[in-house]
Structure formats: structure tokens, C-alpha cells
Amino acid sequence: MAEQIQSLEKAKKILDYWYAIEFLAQDKFDDMWEIRSKFLKAQDDFAKGKFKGKTIGSYRELQASQSIYDIISSDAISCGLKKWGNITIYIGKIKREACIECIARSLPGTREEERSEKTQDSIALASLQLAPDGTYVEHSFSLSTIIWSMNQIKSGQGSLAESIDEKEYRIVAEEIEKKFFGKEEGRKQVSEGKDSQKQEVEDSEECIQEFSPEAVTVKLLKDIYKYIKKAFVDGNIESTDSTDDGQDIQEVYGISFQLFADEKSRTKMDEDNYLGLSHDYFSGDIKFVLQKIKDETILSEGHMGDDLVHYISALDETGRKEKIDLVSPKDRDCFFQQVSEILRVENAPLGKWPSKFMPAFMQQMAVNLCIRKGTSDLYGVNGRVFSVNGPPGTGKTTLLKEIVVSNIIERAVLLAEYKDPDDAFEKQAFLHGEKQEHAYSTYIRGWYRLKKDKINDYSVLVTSCNNAAVENVSKELPLGTSLLNDLKPAADDAEEYRRMLDEVSCLFDSKRAQTYETISKKSVQDIYFTEYAKGLFDNEGVWGLVAAPLGRKINISSFYNNVLNPLIWDFYAGRDFKDIRIKKYAQAREDFNKQLKVVQGLQEQLKDICAAVSEWSELLIRQKKSEQGLAERKAEYESLLEAEKLPVKKLKKDLDQTISKLQDIQKKKEKAELLILEAEQEKEALSIGKRELLEKEADARRGTGVLGRLFNRKRAETKEQVADGYHEDVLKAEAELGRVDRLLEERMQILQEVQTEVDKAVQTRNQIEESITAKLAGMHEMEEQIQKAESGLQQIRTELSNKKPMYLEKIKSFTQDASVDAGTLLDTAFIDQLLSGDIKESTDAQVANPWFTKRYNIEREKLFYYAMRLNKEFVLSSKSCRDNFKTLGQYWGMLPGDEKERVIFHKEDRELFAGALYQTLFLLVPVLSSTFASLGKFLSDAKQAGVIGTLIVDEAGQAQPQMAVGALYRSRKAMIVGDPKQVEPVVTDDLNLLKRAFEDEALMPYKSKTVSVQSFADRLNSFGTWLDNGTDYPEWVGCPLLVHRRCISPMYDISNEISYNGIMKQQTREPDAKKESSFVYEKSQWINVTGKEKGNKNHFVEAQAQKVCEILEKAFSKSENPNLYIISPFTSVVDGMKAYIKAYKKNTVGTSLSRCESEWLGRNIGTVHTFQGREANEVIFLLGCDTSSKSQGAVKWVNSNIVNVAVTRAKYRLYVIGDEKAWQASSCVKKAKTILDTFAIRKIKTILEEQLPEEEQAKALLSASVSLPSITSFQVNAVEDEDGSIDFSVDTSSLLQGLDPGFMSEELTKEQLGKFGFESIEDLKELPLEVQDNLLLGMKLFYLLSPVYKVNSQLDASCCAILFCKALELRMKECFEESLKTVFPEEKIRGQGKGRGSVELQNVKSNELTLGAFQTILYAKRAELGRRMAQKGKEEYGYEWWDVFVTRLRACTDRRNRCCHSGLFSWKEQSYLLAEMFKRNRSDSQVQMEGILFESKIGKRLR
Questions:
Q1: CA distance 842 to 835
Q2: CB 3.0 to 4.6 Å from 384: which of 307, 879, 950, 1234, for a disulfide?
Q3: What is the pLDDT of residue 320?
């Protein structure tokens, strides 16, 4: 709960920020040349009697003495039109760059070099609208947010964020409006202006419209201009009142208006969509969702609520979900299980878009994950926002088609549950109408919504910020010609399959359609409202109304007039229409259900095969894991044995030693015990002896007492003497006993010590024995585990063996290639192929689509047809649909009410029924499309969550994240399709500066210019892959599409390498011969053109423009409308190029560019940002910029995204025009050049390695050799020598870096080296490293290209020869530079650069010593050089020798200059060059000499 509250708080903060940013944004002051061009054409057509239009737009700038009415009425009369709609006035024009500089001065930390070029456009100071009668439309005044913000920031009151708050702006704008339009005169309510409800009815349609006396005057506009300029511009930007385009501010009054033939045309065709100066199309939705979050109701509404909160705070969602890498999985078996689950046949759409081609592997993965039919846990790891990363040419439209088909069929399944279509609806009452039952019409008493809300899951809305992307989707889906082309059989298709394709083709070919409908009282063939689609798209080649563009008012008007209105009259006119139609609905329902069973039956068969493969694969995985486990255990056991071998041996040795020691101690103990025993025995003997002596002493003392002495004194004395003797013996015995006791004690101590030793030894022995036992037990346990694992593995092998015959039988028919029932198994072998490092293997797998057979696909395509037919009959049999369509027409203002008036619905009613009306419209048109800019207004009343089923955002990488908020809220699930590696969102520099005012740290990541709808959605997607982005943190992109089908090489290679880590797989067809002949050049190439840019951040280079015109001359000589784009990273280059072409056309007599109209220039020349989503046969990528330090910021600004988009616009040819030296600072451009220079060489190497049949190889080599780089691809420096001739020097670094060291790693053979005069590679390595590099690569290319010369005698050898030329140039400098400076220090040569006319050798720069310079010096000093060598004892190097040396050097120099000049340098010319460099001269020559590369070493001896 706490986490949820935290997420809501973050989302609130972000939405507040987005709301402010949207409010501050302002569109440029559009020159509206396209509108004006169309008007002038209409004017000319009218003069010729050809203009039949009912409406035309116009734009004029007010000239001196003109009135607003004069301008509008004169334009109307010139086209034969009489009415006009609201008039938009743009007041004043200020250069955006001046505003940016002012804001930058007021904001801290802004550096000038942060921007690549200056902004070229302007913005209006203010705008307002006039009603058709010229009166002011209330609340239409709009003040420039940029000049207001500029003023607020400079005033510095309060915090920056608070100072540019919207409320402050509204106060100021309202004050200005009140000041100039405060009185009732000259004002009109918005509804009056738009609907002309108060316009006099009796105005004749024959008379031209008039202005009211209260109309706004030019004087009032001028007063407004002066006031705004004084209040907001003066003091911030230096200016004078001027209409001069060169001034920062101009007093200009632009008038935009739409003319109509009559009032009826105005009502139906009025495109007015005035929003003021802001491009604030999204703040309404942002504010609405923000309130939902503040109310905390967003989470309780279901559908997208929780996911939308996570989307808004996506940059804080790091690590929220587990990432499943679909390109480089860590666990192959786990990946197999995940892919198997995703691609289970029941998880795929029931239907398929008609085409013999299937979606590729990753396309099908994306489709299945997006439609979310799966029920496993895997489908639950992702939210409702799913992203697809679609690199150029990888089939995003194919993806969309499959999702559309899936939704149509799933919805048809639900619709088919109703016998009567009207049973699917429930009636809802209006609340505020003035008719009976609160209705707005006598005949339509309510509106209807679907009872089963799940039906609404399957509507599809396609949106994008790229208008071309939206148009492409709307036009491509209904296009029958494209569909039928994709159903044409190939030459090798089996007869059965050809028949099946024809069956489907027949269903979708309007010319062969079996169904007839009465349209406009004519019987026509129909598939799905085909005639209406033809009218809507103005294209006879469409098959049905599967999609329609809406959003913009003109699109709504066109849709109503071409579809909705005729539908009402053609099918709903009679009261009995339903009775007539319901039978057709019943038949369509029956046919659909019948075909559904066919598809489901085939699906069940495939599910059986799928289950069998899954079971078999699981067994194989178990076997693999068991084998791995067993191998690991055995390895572990062997490792343990090896590891324990020495320890156990040592333990046993220690045990033996311990036992031996114990035995010794035991012996010692026994000895000690024996000694103790002996001592104890001795003590016992002494004790007995002592007792006996004591007894004898006692006996002896008897009678020695007083009485004894009295009676026998002598005898008593004798006895006493005997007793004393015994006593002495007793004393001796006691002494001896004492000695023995002491001995015994000593021996006991010894025994005790010995016993301690014994105990220790026993303990040690026991410990060792326990250790040995434990180790042996571990080994035994492991042995048991190995036995158990072997047993388990054997069981699996037995199971596999038992099941194999049944499994093979099960898949036998499925794997027969020629059968229509054959398909690709998704088994472990397929995964191995998919993840293979072999490009061909992995490409084959990526192109495949497991489980789908031709028969199954054909039946699925038929089901799509029957679903469309059911859908059609459901709509045509429903009174609820009819009434909702009529209400929708009234809601749009197209269908008048009962009294022919415009029906105005109450706001509450609008918000209640709008969602249901659009959901009914989706039943008629399954796919609706609109730009983001139009969507908010189009669905402004449809405020319910989940009113849209599936939202598809195309080109999402171009859209700022806030653009999608409203659309996501209204949807149930979303598929975000784009590419973060292409063009990023366009954010004007002024808005980017204003973002700095928001200082909250939490907003920092959201202020980045690169964040987009795509990047936000990618953050939430669990399925995708990691792409390197040049940092330590790779970028996660959602489910990537990998099979590229647009560009041939090298464009594909450049894109794949610089943007996609090489994960794309190429499947592009080469152009046919007819198409090839239309191209300007035979190959794609870098064209090196140097020159100076205009400066002041204008990167236009005139010399490069001249080259473009040379190319265009050829292009327009071949075609009146070349399929060629000129693309630049910079607006200044684009503007300069357009101006240059116009001047070139004017000044060049007989130019083929006279065919190049302004329309072609506007359509075919632009910045990279204007071309995303488009493609051409040929592209000129015009880089601009020079080598000055001031242009380096711009060079570094050009990132891989820009290069990626530019090169992938070219399908077949890319011509990059730029200064190689200038663009070395751009790693991505440098990489692109390297690929351009080397791709043909790599291709040739691959061809030779493939060992193709001789004829096939020769053909392949001939084709590849055409693309070898010519000298124009390289940086060539031209230097004028002393004699005025031009000496050339070429930079070979791009070849060296592109091909070495990874290219041709094999060493040259001794024989190959010998042909160039080297006995071994060691000889070559004695040369300086740079000389070595050029020579080594030159020799390798020589041997690589030698077989090519055999099949192409016109081979251009430039790319090989320049390496030898460079080597010779470097060798001459190494040998002669220092020597000549020492010997002839005062000798002069021509210098290079300003102020360096003649330069003494001692002061010469290395780059000034060219081959020509060496040749001149050596020729002039031949005699002196001869004398100097003679003095050194080298008489053989006399005058004659130097004369021959110089002659050979001159020959090399001349050939080098021819090689380095534009044009072909033949293989034969190269042979002559190599002979002079490496070969001994002719034997009959007066002076014998080796090749000059070797002889040049003599230069070192001159010092």
C-alpha cells in the first residue's frame, strides 16, 4: 500500500511537470508554402476552367494599404468560391534563435556550444481568430508563451518554475484580450463564429460573403503588435520596426483561412482546428488523468489504471520486473521452455492476414505476447503495456496486420453468439434533449451500448506523432493490390498450394467477389464496404474498409461523406432493412462458425504435434541435463579422486608412522612397567628382609632388660650386641627401601609420561583412521550417486528409445518439406539453430515460424474473410448500429437535426454516449487511426477508462512520453512500436532551456531530450534484449524484430553494426536490372568533398552542394521524378541546399534540373527527422561541416540514431557526401565510412571462402567488384609542386582500421612475399610499422583481388594501389627527410599554407615533403649526390645511378597521382607501379637497381 501511494505521488509530480511543459511549447510560424502552392494551382486551374473543388485553404501576409477583407475576398473570387470559415490572424514574427539567446542569458549554466546549429525558424508574437464576418471570436486571443516566458525569467521574480506558471500566463493573456476586445462590439461567441447560426439566412448563395461593420481592422492588429512588442520584446531583444526578413522581429500579419463554394460545403468541410499558438494538444488529457490520480480513482477503474501509473513513473521503475532476454538468453533450456509456451499454437491468432508469407519468428513472438491469449504464468509477468522494438525494415506493419486479424476474429466469435445483432445492445436514454424522452431527434430516442463489454476489447486504434506513419497504416491495410500480390504463387509452388492461394485471392479480390451490394443505386461487387473504401481513399485498388483515418476534422468530414452518410442511405433507408438483411447475417454467422470449426480442428491436430514435440523435447532436455549431471558428477568424482589421492596417501603414511610410533611407545611402556615391577619386587624383598631383621632384633632384645641384666648380665650384653647388629641391618634395610621407593617413584613418573605418549598416539591414530574413513565414505557416496545417475539416465534413454518410433511417426507428415501440411518444429534443435553463431543458420531460424503449415494458414486466412463478412452483416442488420451511426453524424456536426439545424448535445450526454458511439464505429471499421495531436480533441468526450480495446502507437521513439497519457488511459492494452535507435523526439531549443526552470531532482531523468513513449514502454516490458549504447549500462529494448527486408548492403551493415549490436538478420532482395539502370551510380559510396562551411553555426558547404547537383543532373536525366532523397543532419544545410538548387537551375543553361519542381524539393530534401518512416531507392546523405574547430560541436552532435535513420532510408544506393577529415571526430560517421569503404572487400573474401562452382563464383565476384571503393571515397590532399604540377597524397587510415587486424588474419606465404621482393616476413618487419601496415594490407588485397581481375578486366584497383602508394611515400620520408635537411638545409621547395611560399629544407614541415618534392630535389642534386657517395667509397651510386633512381621515382609519382585522381586506376597500371616499387629494372639497363622501395634506403647513408 505504501509503495502504491509512493507511485501515485511520483506520477502526480511528473504529470504536473508535463502539463507545464505542454503549456510552454509553441509551434513555429509556418510559411505554409504547401497550402499556398495548392492555392496558386487551384487559382491557375480556375482560370483555365479546370478547378471544380468545393474548398481550398489559403495563407496570405497583409501588405501595406490592404484590408483583411480585400485579401480574403480576392482569393475567393480568384477560385470561384464565395464563403469562408473562421479566419486565423498571426501577429508579428520573431526569430526563435533570438528568444533562445535571451533565455540562455537569463538562465545559469547555459553554454553556446551545447547546440549543434542555430534555430532557423520564427514564432508569432500572438494570434487570434475572426468569425467569417470579421468580428473577433471570444477567448481566441493567444499570446506567445515563449516571449512571455522570456520576459518572466528575465524579471527574476520568485522561483523560475513559479514564474512561468500557466495561471500567471492566463492572467496576462486575458488582460490583453480585455484591453483590445473589452467592448461587445467586434466580438462573437465561439459558436457563432464556427456555426454562423446568427448569419442572415436570406444571404444569397450567389453573393460573396461580407464583413460586419464591427469587423476587426488592420489598425487594431497594429495596435496589438505595438503593445506586445513594447511589453515583452523591447529590452529583451534589440530590434527595429521592420518587415525585413533579416531582422530578429518583423511586423508581419499572417492570415490563414479556408474558402468554400457555399454554406453547405463550409458546414461539411470546415477544417478549423484552432488551438492558438501553442501545440498544446495533450494538456487536457494530462490534467484529466492527473485529477484521476489525485482522486485515487485511477486504480479502481480497472483496465490500464495501474499500468498507466507505472508508465508515467517508468524511469523510477528500474528492476521492477524480471527481464527475459529473447536474443541472448543465459539459460538455453529455460529459453526453450519460455519460447515453447509463448508460441504454443493455441496462443497464436485464430486468423491470419492473407499472404503466402508468414510472420517471422520474432514477429510471431510479439504478436502472441501482445494479444495475451496465453494463460500460463509467463503471460502474467508483463503488464498491459507491451513494447516492440522495430528497427528499419523489420516488418512493423506485418505485425500490426496479424494483431488486427486476431482482434477481428475474436470479436466475431463473440458477435456470433447473437442470433439477432440488436440483442447485443442495451438502450440508454438521453438526459438533456428537448424532444420527447429528452431526445435530440424525433426519430432517435436514445443511444446504445454493447451488453457484453468484452466485445470492446477488440477495437484497434493506431496513433503516432508521425503523420506519415498514421497515413501509411490507414492506407496500407485496405490496399488490395498489395494483398493480392502477396498471394501470388511462386514458380516452384506445388499445384495444390497454388490452388489454395487462388481460393484466398478470390475472396479478397473485389473484381472476383461473389457478393453484390447496391451502392448509390448501383449493383457493385463487394467484400467489405469496398466502394466506400474506394471513395474514402480515392483508390480503386482497395479491398475493404478495414481501416480509416480520423482525428482531424477533414478526415472526419471525408469519412462521414464517403462512408457513414452513404451507409445510412444505402442500407438503413427503409423500415424493413433489418428483415431483409437478417437472413444474410444468419448465413454469414453459419459460414463463420463452420470455418471456425475447420480452423479449430486443424489447430487441435497441430496441438497434438506440439504436445508430442514438447514431451519429446522435455525428455531430450532431461536426458541432456542427466548427461550433464552425470558428467559433472564423474568429473567431480575424478577431481575428488585426484584431489584426495595425495591426502589419503599421506594420511595412510601418517597412520603407519603413528602406529609404528605407538608400537615403540608401547615397548617403552612395557619396559617401564617391567622396571617398576622389578623395583616393586625389590621393595617387597627389602620389606620382608626388614621385617625379619626387626623380628630378629626384637628376639635379640628379649632378656636384655633390667631383669635380664640382673640375672645374666653378660648374656644380656651379648644379646644386646646382637640386637644392635640387627638394628643396624634394619636401618640399612630402611635406607635401601627409601632408595627403592625413590626409584619406584621415578619409574612410575616415567611410566606416566610414556602413558601420555601412548594416549596421544592412539588419539592421532584414531583421528587419522576417522579422516581416512570419512574420505573413503565421501567417495563411496559419490560412487553411489553416479550409479544412481547412470540408472536414471538409462531409464530416460530407454524411454526415449521406446517413444522414438511413435514420435517420428507423429511428426513424419509435418516435417515433409513439399507438403502443404508440413511445418517447422519448435524443438531443441530449432533453438540451437536460432541461437547459433552461424549467421545463415540463425537467419534461417529467425525467418521461420514454428507450427504453422500452409494448409492451416490458408484456412486461417479464410476465417478472416468470414469474420469480416459476419462483422459486415452484424452491422447492417442492427437498428442499434444504425441509430448510433446517425447520432455520431449529429455529434460530429455532419448530420443535421429534424429542422436541418446542427444538433448541439449537452456536455453530460456527450460524455455518456461518446465512448459507446465510437465502440459501435469500431464494429464498422475495425481499425481507426489518428495522430496524437488530433486524438485528444477527437476523443475529448470519451473520458471512460478502457473505451478503446487495443492501442497501437507507431514510431513511438519519436513521441514524447506525455503524448500517450490520454490514449493509454482510454485503452485496455497497448502495443508500443518504435525504435529508440532512430530519431528521438523533437524538442525545440527554447523549450529545452525552459525545462531548466524545474529544479526538482526527481524530475531530472524526465527532462532528457531522448525520453520517449518507446523508452518508457521498454522500461515496463519484461521481454526484450540488451543493446550496447556506448556506456557501461546497456539499454533494454522491448521485444525486438530482427529480420530486415528493406536495405541491401552496405546500408544494412551500417545500421546493424552501429545501432543493433549485429542482431538483425538480412533478407533483402537485390534490385533487378531495370531498377539498377535507373540509379545514378553503380555502388553506394562515400564521396569525399572538402570546403568551407558558411560559419556562425551554418554548416552548409557550397562545394558539397555542387556535388549534389552533379548527382541530380544524372538523376533527372534518367527520370522526371527520381526516387531519391537528400538528407542532412542540419536544417542549415537543408535550407542552403534548396537555395543552391534554385540558384543552380536559374544560372545553368540546359540543366536537367529544370524538371526539379519546388514540390520535389519540399518532398525530397530535408533533415533526418523529417524522413523517418519513409524510404527511397537512392539517398544522398549530405553531411556539411568543415575541419574548423567551430564545427566540431556539430560533428559530435550527430549520433548513431541520426546516421541509422539516414542510411536506412536508402533501399539500394547511399551516397554520403562529406569531408572525411572533419567527420573523424564522429565515431558513428567514421564507422559508417569504414563499412562503406570495406564492405565489398569483405564480400569478395566471403565469396572466395565459400568455394562456389566456378561459374557462380565468377558471377558473384563480378557483382561484388563493382562496389569496391574508388579514390573519391578517400581523403586526398593535393599539393602544387615547384614546376606547377599537382602532387597527391591519400589517407589510407579508413582501410587500415576497417580491415586490419581482424581481416585476412592468415599469413602471407614465402612465395607470396617473394613476389614482392621479401625473402621472409622478418624482412618486411625491418621496415617502420606504418610502412609495414600499408604494405602488408596492400599485398593481401592484391592476392585477394587477383581472382577478381580475371573475371573483371575493368576492375578499379584504387583501393589496393593507394596502400602501396602510401607505403612508398612513408618510406621516402623515412629514408630521405632528415638526410636532405642535413645535406641541403638551404635548398628551397614550395611550402603549403598561407605565408609559406618557398621554404628552406631546414624549416620544412613533414607534410610538405611529397614524392614530387623528393623527385625535384634529387633530380636537381644528382651530380652532388654522386660526388658525396663517391667520397664515402660508394662509387656505384654516381650520377647515372641517381638519374635512374629519379626516373623510376618519377614513374611511381606519376602513377600515384593518376591513382589518387578521380577515375579508374586499372589493374594493369597498378602492375606497372608495383614493378617500379619492388622489381629489379631491366637487365639491359646501364644501371642495375632493385625496386625503389628497397633502394631508397640509400637516403640514410647521405648523412
A1: 6
A2: 307
A3: 59
